[in-house]
Amino acid sequence: MRALVVSDIHSNLDALDAVLADAGQWDVLWSLGDVVGYGPQPNECIARLSEHEHLAIPGNHDWGVLEKLDLAEFNADARQANLWTRNQLSAVSRAYLEALASTRVEGDVTLAHGSPRYPIWEYLIYASSARVSFAHFHTSICLVGHTHLPVIFRFMPSASSTSDSREGRGQNPLASGQCQALQPVEGREVLLDQQRYIINPGSVGQPRDGDPRAAYLLFDPERKTIEHRRVVYDIEATQKKMRRVDLPPRQIARLAHGW
Ligand code: ZN
Question: N or C: fewer beta carbons within 10 Å in the chain?
Answer without folding.
Answer: N
